[in-house]
Amino acid sequence: MFQAMPYDGTRGEQFEAVLLQLEALMKDEPSATANLANASALLKHALPDTNWAGFYLFDGKELVLGPFQGLPACIRIPLSRGVCGTAAAERRTLVVGDVHEFPGHIACDAASNSEIVVPLIKDDRLLGVLDIDSPLKDRFDDEERRFLERFAALVSEAI
After folding, report:
1. Closest among 73, 19, 64 to 46, alpha carbons compared
2. Which residues does 37 contact at the CB level (< 8 Å), separation at least 6?
């Protein structure tokens, strides 16, 4: 059975604890839906000052809403549109300090002010994106970007 790990220690140690928890949650679980649901819940619980954490999955044409934690969200996002679509199309992590200044930003939740989106890629194939929003501007830093890229890589291998 899964046991929550304490979130004390340095920020880096906390990130390592979350990665260990993610691995434990997904170990031997074949369901992509279950793994994505637990991953989004884990992030929402572990990352303070966030109002949305979840996944959009690539269906071959566009991104489609997957498991998430937060308010209801946009269901379909074309590639190259908004932060999620741009990160997916360019296959690179985007950290946006002020989403209102991002060209083509899609406002699913008016309370969101900053966002990080990490592509999910497996065997050079786009699976979707990990998307996290915050009501704070400039919420996400480089250390968190590196952590979330590792998190997304683990998720990509499990789905």
Report:
1. 19
2. 67
The SS3 assignment for 58 reads strand
- List the structure tokens of 59: 């269906």
The set of residues, in sequence order, having a beta carbon less than 8 Å from that of 45 and lying 6+ positions away, is none
Q: Which of 67, 89, 90 is nearest to 78 (CA)?
A: 89
1, with CB counted inside 10 A (0-12, 13-18, 19+), is: exposed
First to last CA, the chain: 21
pLDDT digits (tens, 9 = 90+) for 79-129: 989 999 999 999 999 999 999 999 887 777 778 999 999 999 999 999 999
Q: Indicate whether this model's pTM tops 0.70.
A: yes
The helix/strand/coil state of 5 is coil
- HSE, side-chain direction, 13 A CA sphere, residue 44: 17
**101: Cβ contacts below 8 Å, ≥ 6 apart:** none
**Helix 32-46, helix 142-158: angle, nearest 10:** 160
- The owner of tokens 């929003």 is 133
